[in-house]
Model the fold of this input.
Amino acid sequence: MATSAYPEIMHAVRDQEPLIQCLTNGVVMDITANVILAIGASPAMCDTSTEAGDFAQVASGVLINAGTPSNEQYAGMRAAVAGANEAGTPWVLDPVACGGLKERTRFQRSLIADKPHAIRGNASEIIALANLDENAGGGRGVDSADEAEAAIPAARNLAERTGGIVGISGATDIIVSQNRITKITSGHPLMQKVIGTGCSLGAVVAAYLSVGADPHDAVVAAHAHHSAAGAKAAETASAPGSYKLAWVDALYALTAEELDRYAQIEEA
Amino acid sequence: MATSAYPEIMHAVRDQEPLIQCLTNGVVMDITANVILAIGASPAMCDTSTEAGDFAQVASGVLINAGTPSNEQYAGMRAAVAGANEAGTPWVLDPVACGGLKERTRFQRSLIADKPHAIRGNASEIIALANLDENAGGGRGVDSADEAEAAIPAARNLAERTGGIVGISGATDIIVSQNRITKITSGHPLMQKVIGTGCSLGAVVAAYLSVGADPHDAVVAAHAHHSAAGAKAAETASAPGSYKLAWVDALYALTAEELDRYAQIEEA
Amino acid sequence: MATSAYPEIMHAVRDQEPLIQCLTNGVVMDITANVILAIGASPAMCDTSTEAGDFAQVASGVLINAGTPSNEQYAGMRAAVAGANEAGTPWVLDPVACGGLKERTRFQRSLIADKPHAIRGNASEIIALANLDENAGGGRGVDSADEAEAAIPAARNLAERTGGIVGISGATDIIVSQNRITKITSGHPLMQKVIGTGCSLGAVVAAYLSVGADPHDAVVAAHAHHSAAGAKAAETASAPGSYKLAWVDALYALTAEELDRYAQIEEA
Done:
């Protein structure tokens, strides 16, 4: 593993144009699809119970984000997970608002047994998902109250139970797998003022996992690309409408040199 | 009540970052969430029957907008209203396309008995919701055919039945409560060319109602902030794509001085 | 039919402001509504089984796009088609991802018997919808794998079975009816990097069909307006965030002279 692996994975996504199936919440479908297109992949929001399982077998990667789940979408998510696991398709769990709401928390925790290839969430969501301490976590929707560092034990626990990679999003993102921890410092506070920046990251992780690189490296590269574009966007935009546009443009056009310049990546 | 109350409420929203639960239609979820973030609040689109009631008890404010309601979302809206009323959470009814479609009209009228803290709609929707004249109102979706002035009796009737505040949107917005009428002239015709400007206003009203100010003042301030940003945006943009961006930027950055300059507010 | 018919139809849409009911997938609702507003029409996303049929009787045009269909939306689509046909409202079928997924393919093919006034899709979708060759078509979501030319026999078949107009989207769009084929060369590759450019075209076609012009001319004009704006946008934008904004602006402001300049239209 060398840091030069990251731009290579970014270019592999652009070359391979992986098809990413996103079972995600209604509020972020538009920005998620545009982000997936901007990074060079191809989105499909197929999420019904009758189609999601079949689609997961032809998709390159799958995102499960139960942000506004209807009963039909829950069934679709279970079908997609089953289809992905049968076909060996990498899939990502984004435990949106885990801990704050009973039904989705139960659903999200139940998916750990299905061994997601990656989990991506804020510190409070990762802590609530791991459920090591009943008193921890959630309650304020998708905003992260805890600090990323505090979620490392929960992330390590989840990595051990799933064999996958866990990304904790924060001012510094922390990527945790069974034997490795990597920290990425980048992004900009305005990312919090645009809906779907966090949710779209889960889809980007699915795309990066699909191109055959080392999974830990792939999750690091996904976070680095996503947040380096956020740092670059802040150079030309200072309010959320124009920032969103600049961020999508930056995701599309980011160079290997910019990835290196805007994202500080270090092994812990 | 002095006009200086309005910028104070705008700043209170930015300081308190209220959590606004939006049960709204799929077409405007993205822009509504981005508008809520831009004014300094925090959005959550939790709308399922199993979660919406619990969430309304922890939310700072709730929006009910039955623009594209599935049966599951109707159940979620009833649960959210019950939860909000139990917890004393202010909630807003946006009677989208009331009068034009039977099922939603029946649903929207039934919510009057639950006493929404505020109602926000176009003149035809307010008239149809009050149902004083069976022949009045609706039929063309969300566009307002009638003039705001003509809806004042209906708005007054709704204010009396609910004890809440009624906002009639138009070229001049009219805010009606039991003992007071306030008119706000601002905005720009290009707002009609961007989807969700009206629907997002309901969510902004919910945010403004949540910070502890006088409710009538809060609804006036919400309308003033929303439309003043629309007036400001028109200074730099003349087509809807760039106008939408400029409007979101203006919502985020609007100063007290600009609120005063771009919105003419008068008591009637 | 003269090419001067096309700007006239574009202006007729702006003058008549037709009300377009869009039963479409959640990911493109926002951009579809904004595109409909930008061309001067009025969108309504009414898609529930209890309301869609009534609404189709008052709408000027209807779009059916089963991109992320729930069971309730399927029922709404059937109700809308029945209502549209009863009232003589023109309606458009967009067979998203036809051929790649069993349930939607069955649903989309079943609608041919209801005789859509127009069908709009990529080559692979048109081929799969016509179902002339069981081995052809789909499997990669909404991206078009086949070339538009290869889909002409399938389009001709569909035109004969429905009596309607079939638009095949590609680098060159091909409009096929029983006795006429027209080709439109315009647009820009960046359109593929913005979600909903294709899906919104189906709604634009519905708007154009509603203003009383010759249906084949109307479908040509819809494609020409849509893609000429795409060509114009590429003059000022080179990445998808800014390109999307520029495209919406161009849809709104496109002149008759620009329609002629940016879109090459020829009869085959």
Notes: Chain C touches chain B at residues 19, 26, 29-30, 33-34, 37-38, 42-48, 50-51, 54-55, 58, 70, 72, 244-250, 252-253 (CB under 8 Å). Confidence is low (pLDDT under 50) at residues 134-143 of chain C. The longest strand of chain C covers residues 172-177.
